[in-house]
Design goal:
The chain is α/β, with parallel strands linked by helices and 440 residues long. It contains 17 helices and 13 strands. The protein folds into two domains: 205 residues, P-loop containing nucleotide triphosphate hydrolases (Rossmann fold, 3-Layer(aba) Sandwich), CATH 3.40.50.300; 175 residues, Rossmann fold (3-Layer(aba) Sandwich), CATH 3.40.50. Strand 3, helix 5 and strand 4 form a beta-alpha-beta unit. The longest helix is centred in the N-terminal third of the chain and has 15 residues. The chain binds adenosine monophosphate (AMP).
């Protein structure tokens, strides 16, 4: 990545083995990213690690490279149904992407690997696990399912990685995680990555990690400098027309559009397609096959515009997203940071354009408070609404550490119409955490 400081050691200087260096060269990586430079030396010594890093920072390679290095240095044989390295991820998309990274970085080491997640038939997953695997990447629910059925034995697992721990917490996976950890040997290496550090994550981490090294890149509440942010105020009724206009130009080479609800995601994708900008929607109501096809199309460039809800977008790992459009503002300040972080990845530049209707004006204020800067306003467009710009709602309780409260609020929005859903964020009624929140 181009923003890496010149004093950063090279991958070779970090002491990675030649097969890994070759794989990195094949991936086209020249220098470690900051999280890689910080984390790899600790992990190579077998130390536990607490990593505060968002997606897009190179954190997957930060944990996979040293684990692969140590695995290659230790003669081992797969034992039937056993797993050597267990990686837990909140969503099937993220789990699949981590598994693909295992393949990419481990290509010269001949490691065995498998990915398991719910929503698909377990037959192939069970067959792949029979002989045992070096790397298993899993979502917690399906893992416990297969453990319960006797297809997986975790008693010999030597490394546990919890990726996007804060999202796992949001999705109600804390209890399953604790159940899984209880099945692992006490003597193991444990790594926990999270973009934010709410109280529940700190307490989970202190229970799981032993004398961990702590590494941190990009504080969660700051936005990447390379992202050109702007907000356009408009009435709810004009948002679609404005969006159609914004995605049209060829400079919008790959666009990710965020909506609050699945219903709106479908509506936006249909309207853009009808207007000559073919778009696909991904959200929790789509089948695994539909989601994978849409994502693959977006990655390959066949699909230029992808519309997603927040949860469905977790783990979308596409480097050259030129534009992020917030069709709906997120009602969770930190979701804004996550959303716009999908552009300007891997050293590139990107634009994040937010449409703001009057009812969501207070959410923008909360976001600006969280990121510590105003989002520049663009008024020079045909659908500008002064009313939206000047409207004020009761300021919501948002900001640092408040993400979980607002995250829960978002769940109540179900299939609403977008604008009619507006409620002040942080309503106490939404503050009980359901054990199994469904992804939107
Ligand atoms: P992650 O944070 O793991 O989702 O990684 C973000 C993106 O950065 C992925 O697309 C990786 O392929 C890419 N990446 C990871 N490490 C490097 C590196 N050292 N140099 C350039 N790109 C990288």
């Amino acid at each position: 990545m181009s923003h890496v400081a010149p004093i950063t050691p090279s991958f070779a200087e970090l002491g990675l083995n030649p097969q890994l260096l070759q794989a990195l060269a094949q991936e086209g990586y020249t220098n470690p990213t900051p999280i890689q430079a910080q984390a790899i030396p600790h992990l190579l010594t077998g130390r536990d690690l607490l990593g505060l890093a968002q997606t897009g920072t190179g954190k997957t390679a930060a944990f996979l490279l040293p684990i692969l290095h140590r695995l290659a240095a230790t003669p081992h044989r797969a034992t039937p149904r056993c797993v050597n390295v267990l990686i837990l991820a909140p969503t099937r998309e993220l789990a699949s992407q981590i598994d693909q990274s295992v393949v990419a970085y481990g290509r010269n080491l001949g490691v065995s690997h498998c990915v398991i997640f719910g929503g698909v038939n377990q037959f192939h997953q069970v067959a792949a696990l029979k002989k045992g695997v070096d790397f298993l990447t899993a979502t917690p629910g399906r893992l416990l399912d297969l453990v319960g059925q006797g297809h997986i034995d975790l008693s010999k697992t030597s490394v546990l990685v919890l990726d996007e721990a804060d999202h796992m917490l949001d999705m109600g996976f804390v209890k399953p995680i604790r159940q899984i950890v209880a099945l692992l040997p006490a003597s193991r290496q444990t790594l926990l990555f999270s973009a934010t550090m709410p109280e529940e994550i700190s307490s989970l981490a202190s229970g799981l990690l032993r004398n961990p090294a702590r590494v941190e890149v990009t504080p969660p509440s700051t936005t990447v400098d390379r992202i050109g942010q702007s907000v356009m105020f408009t009435d709810a009724a004009n948002k679609m027309a404005l969006l159609k206009m914004l995605v049209k130009p060829p400079t919008v080479s790959r666009a990710l559009i965020f909506t609050l609800t699945k219903h709106t995601a479908n509506k936006v994708a249909e309207a853009l397609t009808a207007a000559g900008s073919p778009a696909e929607a991904i959200h929790g109501n789509k089948s695994q096959g539909q989601r994978e096809r849409a994502l693959a199309g977006f990655k390959s460039g066949a699909v230029r515009v992808l519309v997603a809800t927040d949860i469905a977008s977790r783990g979308i790992d596409v480097d050259d997203v030129s534009h992020v459009f917030n069709y709906d503002l997120p009602n969770v300040a930190e979701s804004y940071v996550h959303r716009i972080g999908r552009t300007a990845r891997a050293g590139r530049e990107g634009l994040a354009v937010t449409l703001c209707e009057p009812e969501h004006r207070a959410w923008l204020t909360a976001i600006e408070r969280t990121i510590g800067q105003p989002v520049p306003v663009v008024t020079d467009h045909p659908f500008h609404s002064e009313e939206a710009r000047l409207s004020r709602m009761k300021p919501p309780v948002m900001g640092g550490g408040g993400r979980n409260q607002q995250g829960r609020q978002g769940q109540g929005q179900g299939q609403g119409q977008g604008r009619g859903d507006a409620r002040p964020a942080g309503r106490p009624a939404q503050q009980s955490r359901g054990p199994q929140r469904k992804p939107r």
